[in-house]
Amino acid sequence: MSCAPKRATELGARKLLPVFTRRTIVTRVNQERLKANAVEAAEQSARLTVPEICDPVALEKLLNAWPGERRIFFCDEGGDAKPLAQALREGGEGPCAILTGPEGGFDPEEREALRTHSFVTPVTLGPRILRADTAALAALTIWQSVRGDFV
Fold it and tell me: pTM score, two decimals?
């Protein structure tokens, strides 16, 4: 999560929620540093708001508590999903979330668990496997291109 929070702030994300998966390398998140980086990025980009920095959560706990009416676009490197831009155009309006994986991708059981939820839409960012930071920024850029600022 080195530069992604700063860049996500610059790109207009409203909330940043670190998710721990089986392949997540870090074991703790310095939320004060994330908040400071978000404030700095908001100031630099002339943004009037700072994204909410949420407490980290395990993927399973996130899925169990997720409100079913709010869509998650799951960036699945498996390659059998529709492009994110297409899914965003077809996915209706309203608040959504984008979930990108850790370095090394999601564990196969996690991918399966994600796909069982009706509020999860698997999407692809293209034919290349991207680094975690790059995937998050690519997804946010596609969002901005299709939908504009986050709601």
Answer: 0.89
d(CA 29, CA 25): 11
CB-based contacts of 25, cutoff 8 Å, min separation 6:
102, 103
Instruction: Work out the end-to-end distance of the chain between its first and last CA atoms, rounded to an integer number of angstroms.
Output: 23
Among 90, 46, 78, 72, smallest CA distance to 139 is for: 72
Angle at 15 between CA 21 and CA 110, to 5 degrees: 20
Distances (CA, A) of 110 to 21, 52, 115, 148: 8, 26, 9, 30
How confident is the model at residue 77, as a pLDDT? Answer: 82
The amino acid present at 59, given as its one-letter code, is L
Q: Mean pLDDT of residues grouped by 10 in the chain (151 residues)?
A: 76 92 89 92 91 94 95 87 94 85 90 95 92 91 84 47
